[in-house]
Design brief:
Urease, subunit C, domain 1; 413 residues; 16 strands; 8-stranded parallel sheet; TIM Barrel; 12 helices; globular; 4-stranded mixed sheet; 2 domains; alpha/beta
Length: 413
């Protein structure tokens, strides 16, 4: 068989990779073996870890890179929503595309090959964000697969005209439907409407949910109930859910079991949650980051994601998911090799499962989408924030970042 590319000595597998060759033809992985004979162009990876690429489940391309347009004095969630709501009134489709492109390109260069971006839809912004990000999706398809999840940031039932716009976006090809119940006068009513739209258009659901530290009540219970009632298990995700970080062991176990049984996935957003939570405390400030790795034994699909980049919700970010996994590991005190490997899973295979990607991973027959990390094993990837060195999409090299080289002073040798 004729190959287009052979990667030599690639580290494959988790948690302890084995070294194999990978052969690529017509954009797909056609063979994985200890030694593959062929005269195709090749790269020797020297045993470095090869993954299917990082998978970003929760980012906001449409409102990234707007710090210069906002004034954040208190750093609260309410202030962030207010500031962005004011700023987006002046967004144009071209402006959204330009800022989104800047952020998307960063993500690609950081090794992200699949992404779900949340895009705001309401009567103020209309479908500008949806149209701009749809153009990005088309123009960057050779480097990244992009899902668009439209959602109402400022409410649904309390914002007339928003539901009609969400429906229009679904009619025009939005990949998923989201919600933000805590901004609505009737959170459970919003949840019900989002499920109804999802069923009408056969879309997955991704909620912003329970974004505070008052664990006396949770909208998560209603999401689980609706998921079970509609048979949408495996197609519903919830992001933030910082209330879970405020639960004691017994209640946490009960909720974890419920999530696993109903098939509701959880995305933690460490940078944003750390930045916004606990602002009312002047000492012993809570971390506010749900310990997602503790949900995994209950069968809950979990991901670690970026959320916002350079805006009032998160005034920093470089779109590096391996750095985000490392941040999570630090915050969650997840330092054992198996815990670190689980953190890598939560930015690769598990978010691919959350997004119902059937063709993800380094396996024969899958698209030749993979990223080479400058490390030899999964735990080291997270512990050392391993650099992405090389990326491929459908067998085509999308970026090449050689490892830095220390330049020695010849006088010292």
């Amino acid at each position: 068989m004729t190959f287009d590319l052979i990667l030599r000595r690639a580290g494959i597998g988790s948690p302890e990779p084995q070294v194999f060759d990978i052969a690529v033809a017509a954009g797909r992985i056609v063979d994985i073996a200890p030694r593959i004979a062929g005269d195709a162009p090749e790269r020797d990876l020297g045993g470095r870890l090869v993954i299917g690429g990082f998978v970003e489940t929760h980012i906001h391309l449409d409102k990234s890179c707007i710090l210069d347009r906002c004034k954040s004095e208190h750093g609260t969630l309410a202030e962030a929503i207010e500031q962005v709501a004011a700023a987006k009134r002046s967004f144009s489709e071209e402006d959204i595309y330009r800022r989104g492109r800047r952020t998307l390109e960063k993500a690609i260069l950081q090794g992200t090959t699949r992404m779900r971006t949340h895009v705001e839809v309401d009567p103020r912004i209309g479908l500008k964000g949806f149209h701009a990000i749809r153009h990005l999706k088309k123009n960057y398809a050779s480097a990244i697969d992009l899902q668009i999840c439209v959602f109402p940031q400022e409410g649904l039932l309390n914002d007339p005209g928003t539901e009609e716009l969400l429906v229009q976006a679904c009619e025009q090809g939005a990949d998923a439907i989201g919600g933000c119940p805590y901004t609505d006068r009737d959170p459970h009513g919003q949840i019900a409407r989002i499920f109804a739209i999802a069923q009408r258009f056969d879309r997955d659901i991704d909620f912003h949910l329970d974004f505070d530290l008052d664990a006396s009540w949770m909208d998560l219970d209603e999401v689980c109930r609706q998921t079970e009632a509609t048979g949408w298990g495996g197609r519903v995700a919830v992001g933030h859910v910082t209330k879970l970080s405020a639960l004691g062991d017994e209640r946490f176990s009960v909720m974890a079991r419920r999530l696993g049984e109903t098939g509701v996935a959880v995305t933690v957003l460490p940078a944003t949650d750390l930045h916004l939570m606990g602002r009312d405390r002047d000492h012993n400030v809570p971390r506010g980051v749900t310990p997602a790795h503790r949900l995994l034994p209950y069968g809950v699909t979990c991901s670690i994601a970026t959320n916002n980049v350079l805006n009032p919700f998160t005034p920093f970010g470089d779109c590096s998911l391996i750095r985000m996994a490392n941040l999570y590991a630090n915050v969650a005190q997840a330092g054992r090799p198996d815990e670190l490997a689980a953190c890598l899973d939560m930015v690769t295979a598990l978010p691919a499962k959350l997004m119902n990607l059937r063709d993800y991973g380094v396996a024969v027959g899958n698209p030749a989408d993979f990223v080479v990390l400058d490390c030899a094993d999964c735990a080291s990837a997270v512990a050392e924030i391993a650099r992405p060195l090389l990326g491929f999409k459908n067998g085509r090299c999308t970026f090449d970042c050689p490892p830095p080289r220390l330049l020695q002073d010849p006088q010292n040798h």
